[in-house]
Design brief:
Elements: H1 3-15, H2 32-47, H3 54-61, H4 66-73, H5 77-92, H6 105-125
Helix pairs in contact: 1-2, 1-5, 4-5
Length: about 130
Amino acid sequence: MNSSEKIIEILEKTKEFVTDESDTAWTFYETGADFRTEINTWIKQMKEGDTSVLSEINLAFLPTSSFQDHSLQNNWTEEYLQLATEFDCAIAKTNAGNNPQQSGNIWRIIGLLLIIIVILLLAWLGPFR
């Protein structure tokens, strides 16, 4: 399996977690259907050999971006980390893997921890408002 096929497989797996009932408040999307439409567009472009879409997909996998935010809101954080790690490996095998903006898994974990800290602080400060 080449890296493009692997990225398509990762997107297909990720899409399984995005349902009509998904909470999308922290994402760039109004509804789960809108989010799935975007993922389907990326899959279609990748199948057509359009690798220019990799920068958009990469952004979606970055810490505090759409996939991580959605995973936090919809209880699939562990699966997100696994898929993000697989994505990092796949994109590293493409020309886009030479992009200096490419984020490693450690930044995903740091981003996740920062979000958790903010949520805990807001919960703790809640009674003082």
